[in-house]
């Protein structure tokens, strides 16, 4: 599968993230997706890499961003959202809930509650969903950023994971949507200072999600054509 990983790559240049992700968050995600044809882009080159043509030849995109959402151009954000509507799959990770393309596709504020460093237990809420394949009924992350409800998203197609935090909050941690012909998965774990993307269960979720999000049908331009009748009308 052809995969494009966008990681803004800003925190990754600092020592406190380098010691957890020496090859960047994008490096860890690329390793998690070994066996696929993976391309990586960061904020530094996204303007050149994220083009309509490239996305037409991408099966699934992953998006990680946090502190530089506003540095992503509106052109890139629209290009990604349109590619999803036309059939490209996408996985939004962690703080990508406030990324431009996610908000464009959701149409809501996508705000939530947060707090640094808590223990999280993720519950599989849709055991027969392909993204949950091979996972135990629940699993834990010793350190993860707390994201709590209310999460201002539209009603998801499916809630695959519910996160519970030791501080008492709960969160719809893994949710799916369809927009046009495209599959969207939002997955909450993945704070930059914790080794979340090395966790065996998290890697399994990401690999499952990529398989699930793969395009089934790619559609043409998003237009409203005046169309001829299929039958002769009397
Ligand atoms: Zn975070």
Question: What does this entry look like structurally?
Answer:
The chain has seven helices and nine strands. The chain has a domain at 2-108 and 174-213: 3-Layer(aba) Sandwich (Rossmann fold). The mean pLDDT is 97. It is 24% helix and 29% strand. It has a nine-stranded mixed β-sheet with strand order 2-1-3-4-9-8-7-5-6. With 234 residues, the chain is an alpha/beta fold. The chain is globular and about 70 Å long. Helix 5 crosses helix 6. The site of zinc ion (ZN) has 6 residues, from loops.
Descriptive tags:
9-stranded mixed beta sheet; 7 helices; Rossmann fold; 24% helix; binds zinc ion
Topology:
Blueprint: E1 2-7, H1 15-18, H2 24-32, E2 37-41, H3 46-49, H4 52-56, E3 60-64, H5 74-85, E4 89-93, H6 100-106, E5 113-124, E6 138-148, E7 158-165, E8 170-179, E9 182-187, H7 200-213
Parallel strand pairs: 1-2, 1-3, 3-4, 4-9
Antiparallel strand pairs: 5-6, 5-7, 7-8, 8-9
Helix pairs in contact: 5-6
Strands ordered across the widest β-sheet: 2-1-3-4-9-8-7-5-6
Could you say what the CATH architecture of the domain at 2-108 and 174-213 is? 3-Layer(aba) Sandwich
Number of strands: 9
| Level-1 CATH class name of the domain at 2-108 and 174-213 | Alpha Beta
Average of per-residue pLDDT values: 97
Please outline the major beta sheet. 9 strands, mixed
Topology as a string of helices (H) and strands (E): EHHEHHEHEHEEEEEH
Identify every distinct bound molecule in the structure, by name, code or SMILES.
zinc ion
Q: What is the multimeric organization of the chains shown?
A: single chain
**Structural category:** alpha/beta
Write the CATH homologous superfamily of the domain at 2-108 and 174-213. Class I glutamine amidotransferase (GATase) domain
- Rg value: 18 Å
Shape: globular
* Tally of DSSP helical segments: 7
- Into which percentage range does the β-strand content fall? 25-35%
